[in-house]
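Form 7-S
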Amino acid sequence: MLDDYAAQDATALSALVAAGEVTAGELLDTALDAAERLNPALNAVVLVQEGAAREAIRKGLPEGSFRGVPFLLKDLGCEAVDFPSHNGSRLFSDTRYPVDSAIWDRIRATGVVTFGRTTAPEGGVGPATESAVYGGPTRNPWDLARTPGGSSGGAGAAVAAGIVPVAHGSDGGGSVRIPASSCGLFGFKATRARFPDGPYTGEGWAGMAIDGFLTRSVRDAAAFHDACAGADPGAPYWAPPLGAGHVAAIARPPRRLRVALCDTMLDGRPIHTDCRAAVHDAAQLLEGLGHHVEPARPTADIAGMMRAWTDIVACGTALSIRAKCTARGRPLEAEEVENVALGAIDHAATVSGADYLAAVGKVHAFGRQLAAFFQPWDILLTATLAEPPAAIGRFAHTDRDFVHFRTGPGMVFDYSPFCAAFNASGQPAASVPLFWNGAGLPIGIHLAARFGADEELMALCAELEAARPWAHRRPPIHV
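Output:
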């Protein structure tokens, strides 16, 4: 194992490969060794395809930004011929794909050496990763009694522990930003339709879902976003075009910005004292950098958006299960999906076609309400989560009441009240690891920007990283 492997981000490792100081095969050996040693405690890496990784190296890797860097795909989406998937579900276990997805084509072109997938909850639903198909929960390397988040929880745990420096994720209600917050990483959700969805998906969850990455550095995220940006042919939506790109944007600080500080939930209810302290700490840091910070919060219909989000995701879950059962020619069998998925089917049955279109209309109206809020503001500053990382089991998929699982007291939307708002509005948003509480747990800071302002938001995150570096922080379970 390379002594300083876990201390390097993907950009630095690719530079070592380019300089001939290490080979792609040696980096792969190191990553595989790390996974073998750490995965029994974490349960984060699954469906290892060492042969596919070795063959990619043998054939010659693309001359991309991350040539030779070990990499993992989330076990949900990012369809790839060489990488079968369970999709977090016993129903979908060992799914194989006839063609590669557009997002995988772009990731592969960066030159990464992909050797497996990372765990996800069934259907990508929920802020924890505890799917039955993996035989147990995925655990947080900062505290094995706590979740690394969801739905990209395995990616968060693998990157935080140093198995890989960066991993693929996706975000339909916070699924990149929640693990970033829980694992002390950087997670960025791009503007709606910034990345391609085809050919397997027209739009994920009415356009609310998008691919992304869990990284230890802003520069790695910037380079991946540049490499993957742009719609695929026939895409139903297009994001506003980028300027010079994310990498160019982070080369200099952004202009001084007007920041709205919200130290409560978006509806005014209180959050955990550690999370509130983290927000005020970030506000002081931003003010010290010359940004203008004032208290403010949106008056948008948060509760209506959350109800609409719940209807849309329930229908999406029911559709995917129905399509699978139709394709194989037999109905759903006992134990093939967990109770939350069954509850989604139950709830979807109560949502008519008109109800579904009304939910989509509610989400679109909410986006316009948030856009109006952002007219005098450049950034909304909140915590990423309303509490520190949750205990294992709190969000296990045992509750068949899907609406309660999402919106009940103390449930998903109380725990994660900020992230889904920006999936609904389509705006770019990021979780930045600036704060650790007295128990040594990471508390993410959430920054959201205007629709299309990805580069400016990425530049702000890079400025914060330079002002308060976090890469030296390592969890108790790490390479």
